[in-house]
């Protein structure tokens, strides 16, 4: 399984709007191989959002970026961000709340 | 919901052993309020492990550290780590693969 841990900074006061846009675009992800997609407010930075994701493979993740709802969300969100991102890729070995043996 | 995104560095060559110890200690977590607990190998650091967690509340997370299996895993794992940790707390707003409206 492929894992992605990322953060983004929003322009001041725009975090709730960005979270709403991201959260409204997730309906098609499970069918595209998404096993987990967690959206969070950073506890100690009022303009930062964290997203942690688990996918069946890196290829599933890459392909998902072309889904219409995902493309629309990216287009809507980008002007609300500062351009400061962090990203960490992982190989997920297992845990709680995931399908096992995939 | 409370979120935790952490990483730890293992002593050289000890990552698989640490992952096995962590992964073997998770059985009691769902009943303790754990909604997601994802264990991963860092893709670009062969001695780093990432753990991302979602709990019903910060209090559930804190209380879980006293579970017998969790205490035993921490005791077993600590000598295999370098002491280099990262930690990020979040407020989880939702996503895919989580119970909603909690």
UniProtKB/TrEMBL annotation, chains A, B:
GO terms for molecular function: monooxygenase activity. Residues 2-92 form the ABM domain. This is Antibiotic biosynthesis monooxygenase. It comes from the Bacteria. The keyword Oxidoreductase applies. Keywords: Monooxygenase, Oxidoreductase. It holds the Pfam family ABM.
């Amino acid at each position: 399984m492929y894992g992605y841990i990322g953060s983004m900074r929003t322009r001041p006061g725009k975090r709730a709007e960005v979270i709403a846009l991201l959260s409204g675009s997730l309906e098609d992800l499970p069918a595209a191989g998404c096993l987990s997609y967690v959206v969070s407010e950073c506890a100690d930075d009022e303009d930062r959002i964290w997203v942690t994701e688990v996918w069946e493979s890196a290829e599933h993740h890459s392909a998902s970026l072309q889904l219409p709802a995902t493309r629309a969300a990216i287009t809507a969100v980008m002007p609300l961000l500062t351009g400061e991102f962090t990203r960490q890729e992982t190989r997920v070995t297992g845990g709680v709340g995931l399908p096992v043996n995939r």
